Structures are given as structure tokens and as C-alpha cells.
Amino acid sequence: MTEPQLALITTEPKLALITGANKGIGFETARQLGQQGVRVLIGARDAAKGEAAADTLRAEGFDVMALIIDVTDEASIGTAAAQVEKEFGKLDILVNNAGIGLFHRLPSEVGMAELKEVLDTNLFGAILTAQAFLPLLRQSDSGCIVNVSSTLGSLFCLSDPHWIGHQGLFTPYSMSKVALNAFTALLSAELINTPIRVNSVEPGYTATDMTKHQGFQTVEQAAQVIVKYATLGPDGPTGSYFDGDGRMSW
Ligand SMILES: NC(=O)c1ccc[n+]([C@@H]2O[C@H](COP(=O)([O-])OP(=O)(O)OC[C@H]3O[C@@H](n4cnc5c(N)ncnc54)[C@H](OP(=O)(O)O)[C@@H]3O)[C@@H](O)[C@H]2O)c1
């Protein structure tokens, strides 16, 4: 009598790209996705910083690679997308995490050069990256785009004159994240009949270089929120804005 043959089932790991993943919340998101068996491309504008971050996570046993991507440089985004297409032919998770500009500036005084600089990274960078990688996300059976936003991008909060956040008035940053939230809503509407989920996520006020390490919470806590919405199935929510407590008001 012949022994029954066990079919060998191999599943390809999911593939994620995180922009600005060489440090801070992006780096910890890469680690936590790695812990879930996701293969992670560590997006970094500086090759040496990207390689150093990838080396650290590889030494911890994770399947990661560095990918040079400067989100303010359309050619760099295009080169990165072509590389991923050639090597992998698809992408499952895109985390638009690269961000700058958490500095106080009154709306009556903000300079156009600094406003454009922040929008270039936080808004146009995320849009260009999503556009470049969308054809690869369409190859996934459950693609996820997470746009890393902030409470400072909530019009619900910004339109309350007594909101505690008005003590800061980070005008360029807030404007970039409000517009990023609009992009989330619009792109999710365009993709509503596809398996691709598109959401904005507020990771919470977190101790990183951006906050001069003043945040209330750790990068581990921040990354958990992002990972939750980066690993949704095709029936998961789309076109929403989440923090660690759930759905937020736009
Ligand atoms: N920390 C918070 O409390 C907080 C709260 C809400 C939302 N967020 C958002 O979370 C995200 C990550 O912030 P973080 O706190 O982790 O800040 P961070 O430690 O300053 O990290 C920012 C990352 O973005 C990268 N970056 C900046 N410009 C870039 C560009 N043009 N191309 C590619 N990468 C670029 C940086 O690379 P370099 O190392 O080369 O500069 C770095 O890797 C941001 O979108 C931020 O707005 C943070």
C-alpha cells in the first residue's frame, strides 16, 4: 500500500513598503510587520541609513531589504517602483510614513516656501508614491495603503476654537495632514470595488526625533496602530481615519 502524499503548500509572504522607515515609527512598523512574517522593504532616502536599518532588523531575524526612495523626488519614486516590479511583481502593503514639519507657525505668518516644503513631503510625496505603486498593489489579493496622518490633520479638532491642540498651531503640518486625509477618502472611493483598503492612521503623540522625544507613547505603541490597518483583509474597513481607540472624526 502506498503512503498518502502530503501536498506541500507554500505561501508567498506578503510584501510591504514603508517610506521613511530608517528610524522612528516607520522603523518600528517594519519590525512589527516582520514579526508577522511580512517581507518588508525599508524605504529610506539615504542609502546608508536604509542599509543600517535593514541590517539591524535582519540581525533580529526578519526578512527585510532597504529600498532607496526620496518621496520629494519623482524620479527616485519611479526607480523604486520599477525595482519592486522587477524583483517581486506586486506589493501588498504601502505605508506612507515619511513626514516632516512639526514646527509652530501661525497661519497669518506662514511662509510659502516652508508650506510648500512640508506639503512636498507629507502630501505630494504620499500621493506620488501611492500612484507609482498602485499598479503593483492591484496585483495583490488584499492590498492595503496606510497614510500616516495625525490628530493635527483632523478638521473636526481644528474647527473647534477651544481645542487644546490650538496651543501649538503647526500650520504647515496640519494643512499637509488634512489634505492627506482628503487623499485617503478620495483614493478609497476610487478603489471601492477593489480589494485595496485605504485608510488614514493617527499613531498618537510619540517620542521620536520629530517630537524631540516629547511624545506620551512609545514607537512600539504607535506602530501597533499602523500595523493593524496595514494588515486588513479585503473585507476590512476602507476610507476611514483611525487611532488606537478606533474610528476618528475627520
Ligand atoms: N511622532 C509623533 O508624535 C507623530 C504623531 C502623529 C503622526 N506622526 C507621523 O508619523 C510619521 C513618522 O514620524 P516619526 O515621528 O517617526 O518621525 P521621524 O523619527 O522624524 O522619522 C521621519 C522619517 O521620515 C523620513 N523622511 C523625511 N523626509 C523624507 C523624504 N523626502 N523621503 C523619504 N523619507 C523621508 C526620515 O528620513 P531621514 O532620517 O532621512 O530624515 C525619517 O525616516 C510622520 O508621517 C509623522 O507625521 C508622528
Q: What Rg, in angstroms, do the CA atoms define?
A: 19 Å
Strand share of the residues? 5-15%
Secondary-structure element order, N to C: EHEHEHEHEHHEHEE
Continuous helix count: 7
pLDDT < 50 runs, ≥5 residues = none
CATH topology call: Rossmann fold
Ligand names: NADP nicotinamide-adenine-dinucleotide phosphate
> Looking across the biggest beta sheet, what order are the strands in?
3-2-1-4-5-6-7-8
Main beta-sheet annotation: 8 strands, mixed
CATH class: Alpha Beta
Could you estimate the helical fraction of the residues in percent?
40-55%
Overall form: globular
Query: What is the end-to-end distance?
Result: 66 Å
User: What structural class do the secondary elements suggest?
Assistant: alpha/beta
Spell out the CATH superfamily.
NAD(P)-binding Rossmann-like Domain
CATH architectural type: 3-Layer(aba) Sandwich
**Domains counted in the coordinates: how many?**
1
Give the strand tally. 8
Mean pLDDT: 95
